[in-house]
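Researcher: I'm comparing several assemblies side by side, and this is the next one on my list. It has 508 residues spread over two chains. Same procedure as the others: predict the full complex and return the structure.
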Amino acid sequence: MRRLSAAEEDRLRATLEPLDRDAPARWKAGGSELWTDDAQPVKVFLLAPNLVKALEGTVQDPAPTSAGILVGHWERNTFLPSLEGAYELGRRSRAPRVRLKPKGVQLFLYGRDVLSESIASADAGLHSGGLALVANLDGDVVGLARIVAPLGARGRVLEPILDRGWYLREGG
Amino acid sequence: MRPPVLEPVRVPPSPALRRWSEAHGFSPELVARWGAFYGDLPKLLEAMRRPPGTYLRFNPLRGDPRETHRRLEEKGFRFSDSGVPGTFRVDEAPFSAGATEEYLMGRYYLQDPSSALAPLALEPKPGDVIADLCAAPGGKTIALAAMAQDRAAIFAYDADPARARGLQSNLYRCGVTSAAVYATPAQSARRLGLTFDRVLLDAPCTGEGVVQRDPGRRRGQLGEYASCAREQADLLTVARDLLRPEGVLVYSTCTLAPEENEFQVQHAIDELGFEIEPLPRAVQNVRFSGQALMPGLQRVIERDLSPAMTKAAHALPHPHGTMGFFLARLRRVGRQ
């Protein structure tokens, strides 16, 4: 496991453009760092400063399977945020988001599509085909979705990509 | 170095006890031992057959605990004090406490209050380098991270890949950025080239203390003690090797067996260069059902143990209404 190189961070920034180009810098606020492993798929982790300091002094034999929180992984040339990557984007950045009514959150956490009537509010700049963070009314990000129809349209408008219900279904 | 005591203490069950145990699905050999070590057997067995409560610990890394408390109360949950700071008993739940939005957000973790004692006893601080040698499923690791404000460096081990994945997932869910997970035996921590300020060894054990949650453990066999005790002694040696001089170890188990508790602590004192020290005030002040923790045993049948063993502590099903849990705080003495 090693620190993300400047080139890798640039690539990360570019691929996160639709959500928040400055996300990597915001993730690193307070001295946290982005590290990566060289496993397949290649994962990106956010580490607290003291963990970085301690890990730098270790012999990685064996290497950790995980350090800090997983913020996402690379699939070919696209960076896919993880649940915690999406959560941290919501917490530390201005990435655009859709806020759902409580019933909508509940359904979303079951992995169900979101209907327009479940939406309480949405940030400007969200458009069909794009990605949106999905939040509850308190602003906590509960997942990530693809916008499949204009948010004002009737019927199905968001298709879940990630939802925190995963922790119950598969997370252990 | 002398090996730890591996031969289990045998207490012959009376015919009446044997009949009762067999009628209730308990191993008579275990029941006879519990009576000899902890007394008040009818109460202990009654407590062991009671369904366990649900408890949770709020996670400040994922939001203000008061706010989480408020949100859950709005949903119809009701709580009371568990006796351990930050851990609450769920008295009323409109649905499973493990299926709320707040749980999925990592705002709390489900954990028995007796288990919450171990991190409290270790007293992690920001900047500490900590090893958690048998970390899955992660409740204690999350508590350590939270107590150190996510500013320690925690090296968490679990040799079983599936359990290590569960640990990882729980750390992610609860927003812990200060821990690294190793899906390898704790022994591999020796190769890191680090010295640790603190080590938590919540050792694999026969689990006699959790029969309320896992009734299968009522049928435990005396032969299991030796293999657990051997592994525990080996892990204590690992802990000794990792700690800096004056570093702190908390040794804990969820069993009632002295071979896995007091005898291991005695071995650590006699052979591994540890001394036992009083548990921190925060642990000493804990009251379960109004009762202070029970001090460690100084004498087990014919065997005398260090008088300092009273600095260790038990939480027990009958006076305390918790799972059975043992813990001791040890300090590594001597030079590197």
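Model: For your comparison table: The first helix of chain B runs from residue 15 to 23.
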